[in-house]
What we know:
The structure holds two protein chains of two kinds. Chain A is mainly α. Chain A is about 85% helix and about 0% strand. Chain A starts with a helix and ends with a helix. By secondary structure, chain B is an alpha+beta fold. In chain B, helix 3 (about 100-110) packs antiparallel against helix 4. The longest helix of chain B is centred in the middle third of the chain and has 18 residues, at about 155-170. Chain B is globular. Chain B starts with a strand and ends with a strand. The chains are: A mainly alpha, B alpha+beta. Chains A and B meet through helix 7, helix 8 and helix 12 of A and strand 6 of B.
Amino acid sequence: MASVIIAVVASLFLLFLVGPVAGLVGAGGARGIASLGTDAELRQSLLLTALTATTATVLGILGGTPVAYVLARRTFRGKALLAAIMDLPLVIPHPVAGIALLLVLGRGSALGSALYAVGLRVAGSPTGIICAMLFVSAPLYVSAARESFARVDARFEAVARTLGDDAWRAFRRVTLPLSARGLTAAAIVMWARAVSEFGAIVILTYNPKVASVLSYDRFTAFGLQEALPVAAVLVLLALVPLAALRALRRDESPAAGAAGLR
Amino acid sequence: MISLRLVNARAGGFRLTDVTFDVSDGGYGVVIGPAGAGKTTLLETIAGVTRATSGHIVLRGEDVTSLGPERRRLGIVYQHAYLFPHLTVRENVEYGAVSADDAADAADRFGVGGLYDRAVHSLSGGERQLVAIARAIAARPEVLLLDEPFSALDPRTRGTTRRQLRATYFERGFTVLQVTHDFAEAGVLGDVAIVLDQGRVVQKGDPADVFHRPVSPYIADFLGVENVFAGTARPIRTEAPDWRDAAKNQFAELPVAFTTGGLTFYALGDVVPGPTHAVIRAEEVSLSVELSMSSMQNQFRGRIVEIVPAGALSKVTVEASGTLIVAAVTARSVRELSLDVGREIVAGFKATAVHLC
């Protein structure tokens, strides 16, 4: 009896999660794919989304990897505080994150006006989109990358050091290859999160429109039917990183576990 | 040479406190101690993997305390090999090798050449350990740190590997510091033994001396000494043992009488009168059917309460005046003396076999 109740509750829960997405793709998927050939604004929007998300992810990798490594390997005063600060953007409502970014990077701020003076406009530009994406999604990368580094026993590095490698060389030859799968997964998660971001972007840069803003724009301006194809294409786009993640996890070999890599 | 002076370090829950010892150039030191004593932390501090918070580490006459591991010209072999799992066996052995010839030579010495193209995850625990040793040797270290390197090997491979490592050690002349929990191994391999407990060096010196003269009952117990007695020592000058009238005056020279339970041992020692411990290795205790006129200063009649075969020897426990004395005797002695539980027997040991600590 208990197992029947669990099965029913689980099925309802899954239906709640999958139903709307499946309904959306069913209602607008075909039209969305077809409109890729005819709707130039949608194409540009998707391209902009992909480019800005990729740029934000690259920046997240460059800046977040050292932070993740330090958090995974080093013990120092204030480490817990630093970890908490890194997680802060995850718990701030995203429009609030957008407001905070606008406050610091908008033309009315000292930094924003200075950047504008040297020709770098943040608010209302692709740079603003990248900043918003980076702010809200980089903590996911840092958190996952930190876990990935922590799973690689520090003694692999210790052995490499005693075999003549300096710290950077040991990281490059040992730690990086052993954590590469986890770092790749972390980057995919960050990219997927960046692609799906709306709240912070819409505050900082409404135009040019990324796909999430475009779907919102079409919904408010033209109604549900016009928003459906854009929304459905966004869902299909989100399936790409999800499939990549699944493939990565399927390829994980038993040897990785035996060597203490999980 | 490995020389540590008042070294303090901390790694996770382990801590080293004022660690000081020397292993001479080309010497073979063994570190022994219970689990959690800080043995691995000690090796990692010498390697530079764990930073010493104070004190000095000198290798080959050079103070390396502030140098990174890669500049200390040493190798480390962990208990769990830590082969790089993303590399083949060949790539592991060649990782830090001075030359391809050095890698090939090391692989040949430890019999891992045949494994060269294998993936690490396909190796057995013993094979991994051999590759790890070959990898360290291929880098031609001047100091080799070994953290229970033979523990994953089967007895036959352990003997072969130990001999090969020993031969390489003599040939290359590097200095070794090896962690082991096996004191027999320490006795066979080491020039100097360092006993570590709770991050402190509690005894150091010649392994045989540490083995026979542990400085505390705790170390004696850790080293597997079967007979550790708590009692009271008192200096004697003219007293004679009270267990044998015939020998009344011949023990005036013995300086110490040690009383435990209903027994009094005679020993040589320089101890403050009062509570102390007496330690006697089971191998030093002999059994006889009758009291004998011999140089054996301590003989006690008792009854056998247990006989436990332990390899080539049997551990025979004798109860004498409520005190248990363990003797290690050969199987042949068990047969010839018809030793059996309940049998009356005399347990004896020389005064020099009693170590007071």
